Amino acid sequence: LGIGPFLALLDDSTYDHASLVPCSYAFAGGCLASMPSVNVRPCIINVNPPEMRGAVLTAANLIINAARGAGPSFLTAIFMGIWGVNRATGFNIMIIIFWT
Q: Which residues are CB-neighbours of 99 under 8 A, at least 6 positions away?
């Protein structure tokens, strides 16, 4: 559900400055995309026994932080470097593959 506004934001070439349309795409995408990630830590806390919560939350934080660093590297190295696509096409591929 959150993919739609971001794909519209990346693919709409009718605007060349910050106006109401791109800002509304960005706002809608940010609101829709942040909803599932807010529930990750409470879900992890509720499904694990108390003695395992620290280790599980540490592992979840390591995965989240590694993904924040590996995502841009993956985009530039694989999509832009090897396949030779532009940045917008690379982001479209990344969003479709890793967000669905």
A: 2, 3, 33
Hey, what are 82's tokens? 């090897």
Q: Which segments within 1-100 are labelled E, that is strand?
A: none
Nearest to 92 by CA among 82, 81, 80: 80
Burial (CB count <10 Å: 0-12, 13-18, 19+), residue 6 = buried
Question: In this predicted model, what pLDDT tens digit does every residue of 27-77 receive, in sequence order?
Answer: 888 777 766 666 777 878 888 888 888 898 888 888 878 877 787 777 777
What is the rounded CA–CA span in Å between residue 80 and residue 69?
Answer: 17
Tokens of 6: 């971001």
